[in-house]
Amino acid sequence: MTATTNDECVLKWCNEAGEHRTHRQYVMSSVCWHRTWLVGVNVAQPEGEPRRVEFTAASRWAAPVAVTLQPDEAEAVGQALIEAAARATR
User: Fold this and answer.
1) Whose CA is closest to 70, among 54, 81, 56?
2) How far apart are CA 1 and CA 28, in angstroms?
3) Are 68 and 50 in contact (CB under 8 A)?
4) 1-28 tens-digit pLDDT
5) What angle do CA 68, 74, 75 make, to 5 degrees?
6) Residue 45 main-chain phi, psi, to 5 deg
């Protein structure tokens, strides 16, 4: 599937604009660690594959990195982040 705008994409949840073969719904992004990193979370679905979660990280000095997670793996990471944040504020 290719589309020229996100309005033309057959997957209405997809936020990708322009021609694309991987559909993405952008969930969140955050500038962090002294404004030197950007982290993001997306739902992604390459053509013919099931949906998955992408966790991305990019710094000012290096190429971005994307980690692909299955939904249950992403849920476990999310719970761990909540726990770590709670512990860090104690």
Assistant:
1) 54
2) 25
3) no
4) 444 445 678 888 999 988 999 999 999 9
5) 170
6) -145, 100
What DSSP string describes 7-19? GG-SSTT----SS
Distance CA 42, CA 69 (A): 10
pLDDT digits (tens, 9 = 90+) for 18-62: 899 999 999 999 999 999 999 999 999 999 999 999 999 999 899
Which of 54, 13, 60, 10 has the alpha carbon at shortest distance from 35?
60
Distance CA 17, CA 72 (A): 28
Domain boundaries, the chain: 24-88
To which residue do tokens 């971005």 refer? 64
